[in-house]
Amino acid sequence: MTSAAWIKDLAVAHRGYHDMNHQVWENTLSAFARAVEAGFAIECDVQLAADSVPVIFHDHDLERLCGIKGDVREKTAAELGLLAVGGTKDKVPTLKQMLDLVAGKVPLVIEIKGRTGEGEDDGFAETVLEVLEGYRGQVALMSFDHHILRDLKRTGSPYPLGLTAMGDKPEEFFRHDEAMQLGLDFISYHYPHLPNSFITAQRAAGIPVITWTVRDANGVEHTYKYADQMTFEGFDPREASSPSQ
Description:
Layout: E1 12-14, H1 29-38, E2 41-48, E3 54-56, H2 63-66, H3 77-80, H4 95-102, E4 108-112, H5 124-132, E5 139-143, H6 146-154, E6 161-165, H7 170-180, E7 186-190, H8 197-204, E8 209-214, H9 217-226, E9 229-232
Parallel strand pairs: 1-2, 1-9, 2-4, 4-5, 5-6, 6-7, 7-8, 8-9
Antiparallel strand pairs: 2-3
């Protein structure tokens, strides 16, 4: 296992420090630059473009963020780099572009967005690790997808690995326990499903837990009662006043 203790230190800006997609959109270089300036850790999502280049994008479909229909995996990184996000000057960035911008100034918590089809994610984990090679800065990798986590383990990832998860039922905890048997280093959990027996046991075993996605004062309070750190959006955690919706 690799220590993920540092993941507790800073609040994590969900998809960068955007403004709920008004002027600064999620998972853009502008959102990442804003997070660096504010001193927040950054959470972002990685998809695989058609030419096997990791790009920063949350959805499988392009419509919500770029206004066109189609799967992000059907376009090359160069083609995605021409698409405006939310009609702004920001284009869909590659993982490499994001790394160059952040340059180790704040920690990164990178979620790898896998697919369910047989063989669709072959080489995905290895490609992400190749892009990260030589990066000087704190990085953690996480995924909902157990096969992605297995691939990262198998390829000898030098970075802390985490399970992204949700759920409050015993059968869901069983699945989560299966993933943790891989020797994972941290967990990112949906905060409304806390507390629960799975997370209580993992924290007792020394596994750091961050939450997603906190948008109000109740979420902040709940997080620090039952977990170690939050992934947030829509407010500034540095302000003394209560977060706004």
